[in-house]
Structure formats: C-alpha cells, structure tokens
C-alpha cells in the first residue's frame, strides 16, 4: 500500500502514521512531496517526459521517499509502477490541519485520495483538527481501522476523515458527516501594504450546521465522509438548450 501526504515527506504526520501502519502488517510504500504542497488540489503539471528529482531516508524501519511534485503526482507515479508493484490501497495523511466542507477539492491531501480512486485504487484521506497536533497516535489508530474496512470495499472507494486532536479515549465517537459550507473562516480580498492584491482569512462566530463535519468535529467526533471524484450529470438539457440557441 502507498502512504502519501501534502505536507512533505519530512512532516511529522506521515512520519507518525507510516510505522504504525507497517506494524499492522501492511507492506508500506511511502512517496510524498519533497516540500509542503498544501492546497495544490489534484495538480500534476509537467509530469510527462521529464525526470523527477527524489530523495529518501529511513526512519523506524520505513523508507520515506520525497519527489519533486505534488501528492497527486506521487500517487500517479506509484500506481504507474515507478516505485515497484502497483499499490492496492492509498492512505493520504496524516494532514496537519482539518479538511472539511465543500472546499476539500483544494486539498492536496484529499486530491491524492481522489487521484487514487480515479485510477481504480481505494483510498483514505485523514486529517487532524489542529494546526499543531499533539495526538498523532490517535489519528494513526483511526487510519489503521479505516484501511481495515476499505480494503474489502469496491475498488475506488474513497473516504475523507477528520480526527480531533485528543487522546483516543477522549473521542466522542465516530459519525458520518455531510460536507459543510465552512463558516469558521471566510476569504476576504484586500490589498497588501505594497499595493498588490491579496486574500486573507478571517474567523467568524457563525454556528456550524448540525450533522456537518464542521459541527461534529467541534463536538469531538471523528468525522467520516465517503466522497467521489468528478462525474457527469446525466441530464442533456444544457446541450439541448445550447443547440437551440446556436440554430436560432
């Protein structure tokens, strides 16, 4: 199985989860970006017909390989057989910081899982509700249990999971969660002191919608959301309308 992330192959989350998953008996391959590639989504630009720089080191009996590229590229290369046999599962994480709501398509962590699914490999994306997590073992335990479930599901099954940063015995439980429209932060367009345009994040006091990943995380639950990638809407009304406008 493949373990990747978007925080980089030196990040503490991937260093914590890979040995834990290996101890469960999985044959672990770790391939992740050389540097932080957070927020890159499913980008794989420049992946064809060029050599890709790598680095590797061993820790706790696991070899960690970094590539000059994104998490989606790491998955693509691994599934294409660059690093050996095609992985049968992908684990993306543990991400430093949550990945909630409809904006997860920006997440390199979640995009890595969806890239795997698009290539017929089931995947779990796992994130922690903290920008400075302390309880990595909690998320690693959840990740191991999620892999134990997903390996028996149809190929291409994908989960995004968020874990509160607390000891395992202090979790409120595990709940299915719908994707929130995030309310804790909002994007605000502004201008830098030097005159260039920029975007900032502002915190809000809005109450999250019950049953969403945002709300359940606040209550201390592990949130589990099955997701799928791009798919067509089976509705030909747009094409019919455009055809009529072009021939009017």
UniProtKB/TrEMBL annotation:
Survival protein SurE-like phosphatase/nucleotidase domain segment(s): 1-180
Record-level Gene Ontology MF annotations: 5'-nucleotidase activity; metal ion binding
Keywords for this protein: Hydrolase, Metal-binding
Assigned EC number: 3.1.3.5
Chemical reaction(s) catalysed: a ribonucleoside 5'-phosphate + H2O = a ribonucleoside + phosphate
Similarity comment text for this entry: Belongs to the SurE nucleotidase family.
PANTHER family: 5'-NUCLEOTIDASE SURE (PTHR30457), PHOSPHATASE, PUTATIVE (AFU_ORTHOLOGUE AFUA_4G01070)-RELATED (PTHR30457:SF0)
Protein name stated in the entry: 5'-nucleotidase
Organism: Kribbella jejuensis
